[in-house]
Amino acid sequence: MFRPTRPPLNGFASAIDDVAKERGWRKAKTENPFLLEYDLPAEIAIAGDYRTRRIAFTASGIMAVLELADPAVAARREGIENAMDPTPLLNAVAASGKVPRAEVEAQVKFRKFLGERVVSEIREPASEPGGYGTHAIVSRSISNVTTHAGKTLYGCSYSMELLDDAGKPL
């Protein structure tokens, strides 16, 4: 997988700042060091039913920051399941009989949601012996983070992997 290092990410941040200024976006303060956030001059529609004035760039994509406390609501519509569902763990703890179910539930202050659905996946083989090919994936992503309580991050993530001339990841 392509994983940009700090210099390219800094370059991206500088480039997006110029575009942001041209479009009237204002950089937003955030407690999350993994998000570069902007307030937009006007609301935008997301997936038809949601609206927001805040977007966030991640290391791998762009997300709308929605005023939606439960990401599962948006995820159901997209056919996305939570890869971090705590229910099996909570069930196991409660089933042990050491802690009542109500106490187990009360101890969980934040329920992580992290899910995606692949929208596009393209493999392009190397065009010549010794050359390189690519494997590109675009995914619909839905998640939440502790720094944005009561909000849902809804967007797309992008990844590209270089392949050798036999089609194997480098």
Structural summary, described in words:
With 170 residues, this protein is an alpha+beta fold. It has one domain. The chain has helices spanning 6-23, 71-78, 87-95, 101-107, and strands spanning 26-27, 36-46, 50-57, 61-66, 114-124, 133-143, 152-163. A 7-stranded antiparallel β-sheet has the order 1-2-3-4-7-6-5. A hairpin with an 8-residue loop joins β1 (26-27) and β2 (36-46). The longest helix has 18 residues, at 6-23. The termini are close together.
Set down the secondary structure blueprint.
Layout: H1 6-23, E1 26-27, E2 36-46, E3 50-57, E4 61-66, H2 71-78, H3 87-95, H4 101-107, E5 114-124, E6 133-143, E7 152-163
Antiparallel strand pairs: 1-2, 2-3, 3-4, 4-7, 5-6, 6-7
Kindly summarize this structure in a few lines.
This protein has four helices and seven strands. The protein is of the alpha+beta class and 170 residues long.
For the biggest sheet, the summary is:
7 strands, antiparallel
- Number of helices, where a helix is a run of at least 4 consecutive DSSP H or I residues: 4
Mean pLDDT: 89
Strand residue percentage: 35-45%
Write out the strand line-up for the largest beta sheet, numbering strands in chain order: 1-2-3-4-7-6-5
Q: How many β strands by DSSP?
A: 7
